[in-house]
Amino acid sequence: MxxxxxxxxxxxxxxxxVYQACDKALRNxxxxxxxxxxxxxxxxxxxLLDTRETIADFFGIRNSSRVTFTANATEAINIALFGxxxxxxxxxxxxxxxxxxxxxxxxxxxxxxxxxxVTPGPxxxxxxxxxxxxxxxxxxxxxxxxxxxxxxxxxxxxxxEDLGPWCRKQGILLLVDAAQTAGFLPIDVETxxxxxxxxxxxxxxxxxxxxxxxxxxxxxxxxxLIYGGNGADSASARPPxxxxxxLESGTTNLPALAGLQAGIAFIKETGQRNMRRQxxxxxxxxxxxxxxxxxxxxxxxxxxxxxxxxxxxxxxAHDPAEIAYWLDTxxxxxxxAGLHCAPDAHHTLGxxxxxxxxxxxxxxxxxxxxxxxxxxxxxxxxxx
Length: 384
Ligand SMILES: Cc1ncc(COP(=O)(O)O)c(C=O)c1O
Description:
Blueprint lengths: L2 E2 L11 H13 L10 H20 L8 E4 L2 H12 L5 E5 L4 H11 L4 E5 L9 H9 L5 E7 L11 H11 L2 E5 L18 E5 L11 E5 L37 H17 L1 H20 L4 E4 L11 E5 L4 H12 L1 E2 L1 E3 L4 H7 L6 E4 L7 H15 L3
Parallel strand pairs: 1-11, 3-4, 3-5, 5-6, 6-7
Antiparallel strand pairs: 2-8, 7-8, 9-10, 10-13, 12-13
Bound molecules: pyridoxal-5'-phosphate (PLP).
């Protein structure tokens, strides 16, 4: 049987209720939400509103119309960055970001946006003071702080609670890439001072691929990334002023969003804290075993409770890509090797260009899965 330990890329399997919700939506909600006023379009619209409200409630968002549906976290981040930054703006970010942040910011530099990157400590964790210092180096020009809530390479959780209220006091926007934390850590946009929250639906939130979200704080009016029909203000050639329609053009992925709603319901029933404990216990087990292996290089915090479900390592001089291939072909174990779409992070850790081997158990993974992985490592290293 295949052992899937790549939940940081996308979670698998999904709860049974998620499969059922997608199936039910695809079979029964055939209309296009917002298009037309016939019963099937209205039923579809109701499902969409339900999902929006479920998400708003989950992240402490007061007004669900500030939740925009996207295809993934990448699209959400692109809408926030391209929609709000103007030439002359300065952005402070970190050297641990995923390409979902690195690449749009790189493209925006060519349009006159200044980007400055803060370096974390050796375990990948940012010190809030270093972010504050970077902002204060040119407070006047700084428009936005952009940070991942947790690194997808080291699993290091960043001090968003600390930085959010401070950024708000300085009048600076905070965009949080919650790709590795939404559904894993509690997130409340109000108390954490988050102005823009980008999240995938398909990782810890347990939804299917093809869904994500962007929360936009009241008072912000991003320029759309995509223009087109959405059923609102159809007579005008301009996009509607109101959210979410302004940022949602084209037909919505309703079955995926129905699945996402079921995913969040599953998390609430099971308890987000229980799910986190389960994933952390698996990582703790893995860490303990890895530490007993010869010539092992571990990246990120040494305390498993400081990890967001992800652990990266290297085994001596072995190429991580070759190990991942060997694990897959010889042991049916799926892990991710290489740069994890985060070359900056690997430069920071000193693991570029080879990268590392990343293991990310999910809620449905077991201690037996971890044991089998360790057994395979021992065979490779010829360690008893
Ligand atoms: C930290 C981080 N940001 C952004 C993304 C992009 O997420 P998506 O694939 O949903 O666009 C990922 C995906 O792995 C990620 O780990």
